[in-house]
Predict the 3D structure of the following.
Amino acid sequence: MPTTTRRFARIAKAAMAVAVSTAAFAVPATATTAVATPVAPAKHHGKAVFVQNDRVEGNQVIAYTREADGSLHKRAIYNTGGKGGVLGGSVVDHLASQGSLTYDQHHKLLYAVNAGSNTVTVFAVEGDRLHRKQVIESGGMFPVSVTAHGDRVFVLNAREGGSIQGFRLKEGKLHRVEAWHRALHLNTGAMPEFTHTPGQVAFTPEGDQLVVTTKLGGNSIEIFHLSREGKLSHKPVVDSKPGAQPFGLTFDEQKRLVVADGVENALLTFRIHKDGRTTLVDAAPSGEQATCWVSRTGNHFFASNAGSNTVTRFRQDREARLERLGNTPTGVGTVDSSITPDGQFLYVQTGGAGAVDAFRIHKDGSLTKISTTKVPDGVGGEGIVAL
């Protein structure tokens, strides 16, 4: 059997395992209509966790107050003004992406994709409260990821071959820049759809390059260059590997790229060169199934394994080698995650259970479970930000 076929069979098997294990949870979303309604009178709080449920009837962001011990208390439900969407074949990860809910710390704005209506919502953030400022077309079909740097914002659209669309941020609102649209020409029509659509778009830490992961639709990491004036390169530099499924990404303390590969079930570390080429530095297997999402604090990395219902813990040494520390169980369908700015708490979405698992992060990278919080209509939802 060819290598590509064997690898596709492995990820398809993992996806099927997730689908079977979560079938009991795959129920239609209820028609919740609350809009920014506090659950109980509460004082304004500066610490929060925001979770997107990707509800098909109307996408929502649920705001939780984050207490000093890491526990969550539901604050309010905010309608985005758009609809959620479901990629074909997906069960626990309807968007099959990372970064569908993104916080712009400099401008105190929260960006949410509305995959089912091809729009992006801009919220102003005030502590654990949101104020909807804008809903704007994403510039493509089925937006799944968004990234921001300075006054530039880019959205990744998943269907019809995939595309990225750039926006300028002015006075708290997005303005589409027609010249910042690029088609990706991926094989997004192959089945199952959710493994062949692109996974994430993200700025490099310096903001001069834009990284796109393509999963099985391109088996590649694609890097666009951005000039100081904001000019976007016409074509990306493509690093492809047959059978690879680059999915979620982050950056280490030395600004190297770290990617979760859902076929290799590993974290891959790359050095990105100025010309957009990448050099593989390290590959660290999780030993689990469907390793697709990754988050970082300091030299510790946490990879979500949707097929194993676990988080794999890694520690990086000075030579950029990742050491696997072990696995921590979660609820069914481990997907996107977010770490608080102080590095004390990890919040993990479980798309099969429709919940968020909260963990305390210790100095050695170990995790202690704090709580599980149900998310209204949260089965299959993706997108989480911890502040």
